[in-house]
Amino acid sequence: MIIYKTDEEIKIMQECGAKLKRAVEKLLPLVKVGVTTNFIDKKAEELIRREGAESSFSKVEGYKWTICPTINEQIVHTPPSERTLKNGDVLTIDIGAYFKGFHSDYSTTFVVGDKSTPAIEAFLKTGKETLDNAIKKAVLGNRIGDISLEIEKGIEGAGYFIMEQLTGHGVGRELHEDPFIPGFLSKPIEKTIKLKKGMVLAIEVIYSMGTNEIAYEKGGDWSIVTKDGSLSACFEHTIAITDKNTLVLT
Q: Does residue 1 lie in a domain region?
């Protein structure tokens, strides 16, 4: 069931997203070669609390951390650890804030340090641009399928692979709500859900360099990786659809 938000609730979620954005802006400069993902996680929690908000992810049953820091072939849901970041690691920071009863959700991927390649830069640029283009499709009167098709075209058109089992989602009083937003079109657009005022969505572009197949990382309950070990990335924004325009909350 889709839960539509009132104008007042969207204002709270806008404030929540702004707090998360400020926390992330202060967090990213702390991500350096040689630090652990546990260190980044602790700093993330401090920065969110300093904004007067709480961690979203630590409210997910069984998950006690503030971020999901996925590295290289890790795709999503990887907990922080004592793993040290190396020069050239491709790091995704997935993070959420909780404020006045509502969640916000955001993710970005980048290269740690200064050891990148043109192939990796092109890979990450594709994800960023695809998310921007997908958000442009998230307007009144369009459908979920318009967003999905834009992600599919952007990623597969560049020769990369959509992680089809992992999707975007609604956001609100729960971190994950209906509707699901696939990164590919599985049925005709006109049979997908129509976008209406009051929808708040986390649009996610989750993709890899080499495969659309996933696996669970050995030795843990959370971390999902690419089956072939190829690089993965995730770009995500929380957006709200109003009767006037679409707001990017994060």
A: no
Q: pLDDT (tens digit, 9 = 90+) per residue, 58-99?
A: 999 999 999 999 999 999 999 999 999 999 999 999 999 999
- The C-alpha angle 68, 155, 198, rounded to 5 degrees, equals 65
The number of folded domains in the chain is 1
Report the C-alpha gap between 111 and 120 in whole angstroms: 8
For residues 105 and 236, is the Cβ–Cβ distance under 8 A? yes
Is residue 170 one of the residues assigned to a domain?
yes
Domain containing 148 equals: 7-248
Residue 187 lies in a domain: yes
Q: Tell me what pLDDT residue 35 has.
A: 98
CATH number at residue 76: 3.90.230.10
Beta strands in 32-188 (DSSP E): 54-55, 67-71, 74-76, 90-99, 102-111, 161-162, 168-170, 177-181
* Cα 92-218-228 angle, rounded to 5 deg: 65
Rounded Cα distance, 227 and 175, in Å: 27
Query: Which pLDDT score is estimated for 218?
Result: 84
Radius of gyration of the chain (CA): 17
Residues in the chain: 250
At position 33, the amino acid (one-letter code) is: V
